[in-house]
Amino acid sequence: MMDTQAAYVPVAVPAEITPKNPGRVQGIIGIVCAVIALLLLPPVFGAAGIIFGVIAMNKGQKTLGLIAVILSAIFLVIGLILSIYVNVILEEGGSFVLGSVLSLL
């Protein structure tokens, strides 16, 4: 009895798949963390943005990484100042519009 089926030959898969732009994802994550640091946990997201920016710079995305580091540092400081300001307003009774809006939350 003859076997008439064709032999199955698997398609070759590359041993290593390298991204086209290494570090780009980390740079974008760094910028997103910087923006989040304005309103939510500035020390955590600001530091994360700086770390991701440095990683992006080390992987070859110098400009994107530098933008992420600078924005993270600036937004970290602004976020801290904003959170202190809002906290003081809320403790004083919320007479300011922003304080009264945030007190409803």
Secondary structure: elements and pairs:
Layout: H1 24-37, H2 42-58, H3 62-91, H4 97-104
Q: List low-confidence stretches.
A: none
| Helix content range | 55-70%
Q: Rg, please?
A: 25 Å
Total strands:
0
What percentage of amino acids are in beta strands? Answer: under 5%
Q: Between the first and last Cα atoms, what is the distance in angstroms?
A: 79 Å
State the domain count.
Answer: 1
- Biggest sheet details: none
Mean pLDDT: 80
What is the structural class?
Answer: mainly alpha
Shape: elongated
SS element count, helices: 4
SSE succession: HHHH
Descriptors:
105 residues, mainly alpha, elongated
How would you sum up this structure, described in words?
By secondary structure, the chain is mainly α. It has one domain (24-104). The chain contains 4 helices and no strands. It has helices at 24-37, 42-58, 62-91, 97-104. 26% of the residues are buried.
